[in-house]
Design a protein that fits this description.
Shape: elongated
Mean pLDDT: 77
Distance between the termini: 54 Å
Largest sheet: 6 strands, antiparallel
Low-confidence stretches: 1-37
Strand content: 25-35%
Structural class: alpha+beta
Radius of gyration: 18 Å
C-alpha cells in the first residue's frame, strides 16, 4: 500500500501529491492502523481511544468554561450572560491550509433564543486543549445579523 496517497499511518503529516499541500492525516476508521512498536490496532480500539480523548477534552473544557465565557463577553460590552450549548460541541480539523485540530464550541448570549457565537480551541499534539490560543470563530449574531 502506498502510504503517501492512502495515508494509512496514524496521525502524521502527509503531502497530497494531487494538491501539493501538507495535511495532518488521521487513521481511516475502516482500516487497521500501524502504531509505534505495537504492530496493528483494530478499528474498535482506535475508536474507543478517540471517544476517551474527546470525553477528557470535553470534561477539561467544562472545568474551564469561564475562559470561554470571558472571551465571548470581551467581544461586546452589551453581553451580560453567555450560554454554552455543549450538545453542539464539534471536533474538526482546520482543513488544507491549517492542519491543526480544534474543538468548536457554540452558544448564545443574554438568553436570546436566536443569538449565536462560536469559539475555536486548538488541540495540542498530545491531545490537550490550548485554551491560551482559543479565538472567536463565529462572531456574535442575533437572528443572523452581527451583534452591535
Amino acid at each position: 500500500m502506498n502510504e503517501e496517497t492512502n495515508g494509512t499511518i496514524f496521525d502524521h503529516f502527509v503531502t497530497d501529491h494531487r494538491i501539493g499541500f501538507p495535511w495532518r492525516k488521521n487513521h481511516d476508521h475502516d482500516q487497521k492502523t500501524r502504531t509505534e512498536g505495537n504492530g496493528l490496532i483494530l478499528k474498535e480500539s482506535c475508536t474507543k481511544n478517540r471517544r476517551r480523548d474527546k470525553k477528557k477534552q470535553l470534561d477539561y473544557l467544562k472545568e474551564h468554561e469561564q475562559k470561554v465565557i470571558d472571551l465571548v463577553k470581551a467581544q461586546n460590552s452589551k453581553v451580560e450572560s453567555v450560554q454554552i450549548d455543549w450538545d453542539h460541541t464539534q471536533w474538526s480539523d482546520g482543513g488544507l491550509t491549517t492542519p491543526e485540530y480544534y474543538i468548536n464550541v457554540y452558544g448564545g448570549i443574554n438568553h436570546i433564543e436566536e443569538s449565536s457565537w462560536g469559539v475555536d480551541i486548538p488541540i495540542n499534539e498530545d491531545n490537550t486543549l490550548n485554551l491560551d490560543e482559543m479565538y472567536i470563530g463565529s462572531y456574535i449574531r442575533i437572528g443572523g445579523r452581527l451583534f452591535e
